Amino acid sequence: MITLILIPVLGGIVCLAFKNRQRLCMTIALATTITNGIILPFQIFRVVEINVGEWGNLGIRLAIDDFAMPFLLSTFFVMLAITINSIRKQYDGFFYSLVLILFGTLNSIFLSRDLFNIFVTVELASIISFILISYEKKARQAWASLKYLLLSSLGLNLYLLGIGMVYMETGSFAMEGLNSVSTVASVLIFGGLAVKSGILLFSMWLPDAHSSAPIHVSPILSALIVKIDVYLSIRFVTFDSFLWLKDFYISIGLFSAIVGAYMALNSLNAKRLLAYSTMSQVGFMMVNCDKSSSWHGFSHAIFKTLLFLVVGNISYRLGTKKYDEWNGRLSKWEYTFLLIGSLAMIGFPLTSGCVTKEIIIHGSCCPWVRGGLYLASTATAVSFCRLIFLRPSKESTAMPVTHTLSYLLLTGVIFVHGILGFELYELEALIPVSVGILIYVLTKRYLKPLPNKIEKLDLSLIAYLLMITLSLGVALLAT
Amino acid sequence: MSFVMAIAGTLYLISAVIVIVSRTSFQGVIWFGIMGSISSLIMLMAGAPDVAMTQFAVGVALVLIVYIMALRKQRRVRMGYISVPSMIENTQSGLRGLEWEVLQHIDEKEGYHVEAIGFGTKEEGMKAVVNHSIDLLCGALTEDDVSRETKGLPYLETSIFLCEDEKIDFVRLKHKTRSATSPEPVFHKKSNYVLVVSRNSEDLIRDLLEGIQDLHESGKIKEIVGRYL
Amino acid sequence: MTGSIVIYFSIMGMLAGTIGMILSKNIIKKILSLGIVETSINMMYTGISSRGGIIPPIVSGDFSLSYADPIPQAVIITGIVISFALLCLSLVLAIIIYNNYHTMDVETIERNFEREEE
Amino acid sequence: MKVLGVIAAIAIFFVVLVSIDTDKSIADPVKAIVERTNVPNSVTAVYLETRLYDTVFEVIVFSITAIGVATLLGSLARAPHENQSVFHSVTVYSGGLAALSITLFLYVVLNGHVSPGGGFVGGVVLATGVVTYGLTSDFKRASSHYDRLRIKQLESASLLVIFALSTLIMLFPGMHSRLLASGTFGSTLSGGLIPILNILVGIKVYAGAWKMSGEFISRRGTL
User: Fold this and answer.
1) Other C-beta atoms lying within 10 Å of the C-beta of residue D103
2) Which chain C residues touch A140 with a CB distance below 8 Å?
3) Is the Cβ pair D50, A53 closer than 8 Å?
4) Which of A315, A474, B189, C62 has the fewest Cβ atoms nearer than 10 Å?
5) Residue ranges per domain, chain A?
């Protein structure tokens, strides 16, 4: 099981050593991802636990179980698609070593059962994402990355404070200690990691960071780094001292789903639309924190990567991110993959998005939550109709083979998952989709971009601290 | 033992607060170094020599070098000044005056290293600006002092008076010891005080313009003028 | 007893750092306040380790002395080096921004970005 | 609006201050650690043997940041540092300081498992010494050693060796504890693979810290 972590990291270090030979690093990246994919099925389906170095309670424990399995699968698929897609963009060796080490770190986060080890690996993943966001050294990317850095390291310091309290109360950093820990420590641990989770008001840095990142970096951010906290929250909710979190998540998840979809509705920039919809999809995952949301994490990672790659390459080719200027200039192939991605995002039957979204909607606890989720999925439907109703141009410009290869890989996963998991009640999903299309056609002209004043550095910092005080109040009242 | 720790803890908090309220970020960095060494001292007393060594080496020595390198970005601004009472003058406690206050406000945001050089007369100062030996000249200069090679940035309206056929601006007139017999000063024309900047420092001009505009918007200019005139 | 004093002071230090981060307008000041939060956390972990005793955990044979707890200390050495790495990265980003906009002031930077947005 | 943020921060930390209970369970693992690793300095034993897994990620964080800073700063113009205002008294002192930091580096790294110290401290101490020498007196001479000693190749080689050694230790803990038990308690050669890891981490951290501050200096000019 350790090989899942060691092979990508080893590949990353070798790339680091030969970082000026670009072709060699690209082949190393491809080879490592594929070998990781080959050994993945043997590791995933056995529940295994390892004490690293047989140190028992003092040392670090790694364990695999079915919470982590969907995330490991999605990490592999996303990394494979991105490596294939980035062959034409001539990134230098350092980019591939960053991506590979990030791959290994994500695998390690999904396996580790030790709180401080999670801190170090999440910190490494964030440092890699800060460098990747500002990889093209533009001032806008540097500012988005700096905002993300300040907020995320303040959050991780609160997380460190929470672990300190856990160590004081239980005497070790093991995750089982979370069963008998004070609520304030659980709030700090939740609040510290929530800054990276993409829930609205917690991480207001997300739209800027995901929309200004380079083409092959924003899918990594949206599909993988956001899933770190989704996975950790699913795991934390199973412990006793986090019981208050389960119903707190319902309210903020629902709030984030609806308001995120509304903000996605009103954005003109395509990448910003996808960033806001990531925040609303995270809200979907958080509503009921159990295996269904981890599978929704898997399907969201796949179709969000497809969307970000397609949108990124189109905006790179046409030079503009505003999608209403794309009318009539998209090639046929690009339009079809954009259509598939948006349909999966809306939750059209036969796609993986619909399978997992329906499980969540049916699994949600009470009717008002189900109504809220339907409202959010209609709002998502309206916002993605803007991409669906773009007219492709007549002549079909050739698309590079690496792009088609990676898109086909992702669409294959979407449809296989969609068809395998097809249930009858999924036809219900057609209702929000059709209502969404109807609303879109009626109100096409009135939608104008919202002022994003809340995304300023100071305001997102204050919003984050206010949300932590809110969760502190909810936790103390609940127990 | 716990008494000593309490003292060190309060010292630590005081230096942390000073870092936050320090005016320029350069001062903040120095106090950050002091705070880092106090915290490594506390760690040593708390029985963690390894951590104290790492904190001191990383958190104080290397951090200070990196910060100074980052703050090193500030431009070295060579400022010539002609001392005019209440506009800009060199008192024993350093430079004081309305123009110095304006420059301080602009410097606060940009964080310049200002080197002040005194000049006897206007002509000397203007010659120094023309041959770019200084970047900026100030000292109650008005628009008609600005020659072609330099650039005048107006920051305060004033009026010029004719007194004994010599053009005197408002401030110098106020401080000029007028004997009873001198004729009443006659209002000559509207003009405004200028900061004379040498042409080749473009970003300095842009920053000063931005600072002056910010001063007018935020209304601080009236408050400063009220204090000095 | 000494451990809890260090812990209380470090939490107050974290409070000071967070308030500094909110109130300061200059990017370098915000990064400095972040440094204060990180130094306070590192100090808190030495407080946690010295609850049991303040004798440095370098053993010279007999285990009867009341040693400080080595695990938080070892763990926080990693934390210190990580906070240094974060600090260098944030300073580089601040310099890149300074080179384009010649200002370290948060409002002017965000005003420039809004002007570019339209 | 900022006042709201300040009030929220005060509320959070006040509740934390009130609810911290420092004397709940005080663990004392020194005996278990030292007995198994047979190394006097239990802090180094923890972060190089018990929690070696964290330290591997830690070294990767440091090297990634060092190269990341170098590439991100690559976009800026190199600042000329010919007219370095050199004060001769300072050069003598900083030269002596650099030499002293080399000896301190060797002491701290070699018996980091016996007396307080270790790879991280040693690397940073040496980097600070050499950087102050480079800053105050002659940056070109200070950075010439970087290519003469081929530290770039040494750095990536030490990263690979650290990674290989730590995977070996983690995969075969039994063998490593037998190796640890063989050395006599407290002597410099006693720590099994720990001193070797210490030296490699020291070189790695020195190279990373030197590259980072060197990049800063060459971009922003010396004092």
Assistant:
1) 11
2) 113, 116
3) yes
4) C62
5) 2-478
- What span, in angstroms and rounded, lies between the C-alpha atoms of A42 and A1? 9
pLDDT in tens, A372-392: 888 898 888 888 888 888 888
Write the pLDDT tens digit of every residue in C66-97: 888 888 999 999 999 999 999 999 999 998 88
Q: Show which of residues 162-201 on chain D sit within 8 Å of chain A, judged by CB atoms.
A: 163, 167, 169-171, 173-174, 176
Residue C64 at interface with chain D, using a CB cutoff of 8 Å: no
Q: Which of B42, B71, B75, B108 has the highest number of chain C CBs within 10 A, making it the mutation to test binding with C? A: B42
**Residues D66, A132: contact at Cβ < 8 Å?**
no
Ranges of residues in chain B with a pLDDT under 70 are 72-76, 107-113, 163-165, 167, 171, 173, 175-185, 200-203, 229
CB A285 within 8 A of CB A308: no
* Res. D21 pLDDT band, cuts 50 70 90: confident
Distance (Å, whole) CA B106 – CA A376: 49
Residue ranges in B46-194 assigned as alpha helix (H) = 49-54, 63-71, 98-110, 122-130, 170-175
Torsion sign, CA atoms A67, A68, A73, A79: positive
Put simply, the answer to whether C88 touches D55 (Cβ < 8 Å) is no
User: Which domains occur in chain C, in start order?
Assistant: 2-58+67-117 (1.10.287.3510)
The confidence score (pLDDT) of residue D178 equals 82
- Chains with 3 or more CB pairs under 8 A to chain A: C, D
Closest partner residue to C77 (CB to CB) among B10, B45, B50 is B50
- Contact present, B and A (at least 3 Cβ pairs less than 8 Å): no
D15 to A172: CB separation less than 8 angstroms, yes or no: no
Q: Which long-range contacts (CB under 8 A, 24 or more apart) does A5-8 make?
A: A5/A104, A5/A105, A5/A107, A5/A108, A5/A111, A6/A104, A6/D167, A7/A32, A7/A35, A7/A36, A7/A39, A7/A104, A8/A32, A8/A33, A8/A36, A8/A100, A8/A101, A8/A103, A8/A104, A8/A107
Nearest CA in chain A to C106: A457
Could you report the predicted ipTM of this complex, rounded to two decimals?
Answer: 0.90
* Closest CB from B50, B53, B62 relative to D209: B62
Provide the 10 A C-beta neighbour count for residue A376.
28
**Chain-chain contact of A142 with C48 (C-beta, under 8 angstroms):** no
H or E stretch covering B55: none
Of all helices (H) and strands (E), which one includes residue B166? Answer: strand B166-169
From D66, D59, D160, select the one nearest D118 (Cα to Cα).
Answer: D59
**B53, D116: Cβ pair inside 8 Å?**
yes
In the block, tokens 């009470």 appear at A366
D92 Cα to chain A: minimum distance (Å) = 37
CA angle A84, A90, A92 (to 5 degrees): 105
pLDDT digits (tens, 9 = 90+) for B38-78: 999 999 998 889 899 999 998 888 888 888 888 765 556 77
- Asked if B5 has any chain C CB less than 8 Å from its own CB, the reply is yes
CA A459/CA C22 separation, integer angstroms: 9
The pLDDT of residue A5 is 84
Measure the CA angle with vertex D162, ends D161 and D163; round to 5°. 90
Of C23, C59, C89, the CB nearest to D2: C23
Indicate the residue of C60, C69, C93 with minimum beta-carbon distance to D28: C69
Per DSSP, the three-state class of D10 is: helix
Distance CA B46, CA D90 (A): 35
Q: What is the pLDDT of residues A41-76, one digit of tens each?
A: 887 777 778 888 777 777 788 888 888 888 888 999
Give the tokens for residue B9: 């803890």
| Alpha-carbon span A121 to A466, nearest angstrom | 27
Are the C-beta atoms of D209 and D70 separated by less than 8 Å? no
The chain C residue lying nearest D187, using CA atoms, is: C60
pTM over 0.90: no
